[in-house]
Amino acid sequence: MVVVALGGNAITREGQSGTYSEMLANCQEMAASVCALREAGWRVVITHGNGPQVGNLAIQQHAGSPEVPGQPLFALGAMTQGLIGHLLQMALLSTHHQQLGPVVGVVTHVIVDRQDEAFDRPSKPIGPFYSLHEAQARSDLTGHPIVEDSGRGYRITVPSPRPQAIVEGDAISRLSKDGYLVVAGGGGGIPLVERDGTLAGIEAVVDKDRSATLLATYLEADALLLVTGVECVLADFGKPTEREIHLADAAQMREYARQGQFPTGSMGPKVEAALDFIDASDGYAVITDASSMASALGKGETPGTRIVREIRGLPRQGAPA
Q: Omega of the bond prior to 128 within 30 degrees of 0, cis?
């Protein structure tokens, strides 16, 4: 069984404005790779990010106010979870229905700690990229701080607490075991906190890679597939010694991280998520791009970066029996 974590930037790609037709076309491309995973024998649960989409929706909320009241950030997460889940289901059902079997989306909530330090230090970039002047103007309007994001421009940031539990975890597990291809945990899940014995939404966007790790661990997945914009992780990026990492164990990746090889705004969260999954499970993790995701779980030499617990004892490759 594999949990596939699709980035929000794979659904609205660089240079795109985020129209419905653009997002659907991108989802249709990825549907073919998901179909290939199913044909290879994998049970699949898909999660996805929502960074660009939730930021765009926040802009619409502000533009429509006060004529139409704006909704809280966690509600925007729910809206984008529904939209992107719909797009992925449409792409899967309309293009590959016969090969995939039943497909279902699960609106997913996650429990977070209201005392999480992330609420004091917003760090999750959302929405489009701006010039510094544009970003400062947007920050003045929304009250959210800004950050320079990987040399691509400036974005607003929001709190991103660690997910503690997945409310619908048991339902997702049962659906997967019954043969459904499940789309769940969209946008990292809708963040909730416990208040006076009840659950309530809180202003945050949960990192989808962290939620994917939590979900994959809960489901006892064989593999966690983190889909990003590059085929594999690079060591010594931008230096004469730059090289691709195709296979590494957890200790090697931790040493690279200690050296500052994986910036917080790009590959850092994915490597952290991969290592967290390996620490908490008997599985392995793969980081690769959308076009390579199906072949990255194959046998022998494969694209992507495969991270295992120990290099001497490679986990069983290919689809589980």
A: no
